[in-house]
Write a structure and sequence with these properties.
Blueprint lengths: L2 H20 L2 E7 L2 E7 L8 E5 L18 H11 L3 E5 L20 H16 L6 E6 L1 H12 L4 E5 L6 H11 L4 H15 L18 H8 L4 H5 L5 E6 L7 H10 L4 E5 L12 H7 L9 H12 L5
Parallel strand pairs: 3-4, 3-5, 5-6, 6-7, 7-8
Antiparallel strand pairs: 1-2, 2-4
């Protein structure tokens, strides 16, 4: 096909996707204290549905936080809906402010994230509207997804750029890459180890702004190990990693794959942590605040094909 005939075809394909999404049924729902957005493709009876779980921080249903706005979940939802897959995405605890219904912030524990995802899965299954329920976790959301799969029946599990290490260990590895001065790095590493051991570090060292009252909650996240629970997940699983991801290394991808040997794996050399292709470090940093930048096409096709494959359990 000549280039001048291919371009109009691609434009028309894009317009078709826009038309599908424009007529999709989108509704705001609340499950307990969790605000979520359910998007259902038109003219599909009993579509599969993907619960999209965001990464770390007070991330909203679009995949945006206070400092970075890549709209990762919004873009993934749009692409899945265009492929006849419904999505449910939600505001994590703390997104847009802490609600009184969540209790005191200092009483938060990582299991609360799993409780929220579990409640949303149960909500999706209770209506009988969907043919299968797939849990898709991005980054830290992958850990939530693994623990959710151990808590409640799901049909498929997708892990996108998910770490295979305890988060405390991952944070230390990320700090080491920054090549901080030893007198800054060593106290931070010691404080992280102490917090992971259940101790309170007061005052925290320079560069680690975790108030003592919040450290037990942080410890509950820092010490959660994804490998052992993943070994017990028997649902079909897809593991996706990116070669230009500066936050999660290929060793994590390999360790997750080893823990789930029957999982389907996809390695995308040019994809970064917010699921777009980048050329270099500058391009990578800019991508975190480019909400209109397209997701990697292989990622989208792989996730959609995996969700649509086979039947429900």
């Amino acid at each position: 096909m000549r280039a001048w005939t291919l371009i109009p075809a691609l434009v028309m394909l894009g317009l078709c996707d826009m038309a599908v999404n424009a007529s999709a049924e989108e509704s705001k729902i609340r499950v307990g204290a969790i605000d979520a957005v359910l998007t259902v493709p038109p003219d599909v009876e009993h579509p599969p549905v993907a619960l999209l779980i965001a990464g770390s921080g007070s991330t909203d249903h679009d995949g945006n936080g206070p400092q970075v706005k890549p709209a990762t979940l919004k873009k993934l939802s749009e692409q899945l809906v265009a492929r006849k897959i419904a999505t449910l995405r939600y505001d994590k605890r703390g997104a847009g402010g802490w609600k009184p219904e969540f209790g005191r912030p200092e009483d938060f524990r990582f299991k609360d994230y799993v409780d929220d995802a579990t409640a949303l899965v149960n909500h999706l299954r209770s209506g009988g509207k969907f043919s299968k329920i797939v849990v898709v976790g991005h980054s830290e959301g992958g850990l939530v997804a693994i623990l959710t799969a151990r808590r409640v029946p799901i049909d498929r599990l997708v892990l996108l750029v998910t770490a295979a290490r305890r988060q405390g260990d991952l944070v230390k590895a990320q700090l080491e890459k920054k090549e901080l001065p030893s007198d800054v790095l060593k106290p931070i590493e010691a404080a992280i180890d102490a917090i992971m051991a259940g101790q309170i570090v007061d005052p925290p060292p320079r560069g680690l702004s975790i108030p003592p009252s919040m450290q037990p909650g942080v410890a509950s996240a820092f010490t959660e190990d994804p490998i052992d629970p993943l070994k017990l997940v028997d649902q079909p699983t897809l593991i996706v990693g990116g070669g230009r991801d500066r936050q999660v290394a290929r060793v994590d991808f390999a360790a997750l794959s080893a823990a789930s040997p029957v999982a389907k794996t996809v390695w995308i050399p040019d994809m970064n942590h917010v699921l777009v292709d980048v050329a270099d470090e500058t391009d990578d940093l800019e991508a975190y605040n480019q909400p209109d930048r397209a997701l990697d096409a292989t990622l989208v096709d792989s996730v959609a094909a995996f969700i649509l494959a086979g039947g429900a359990r």
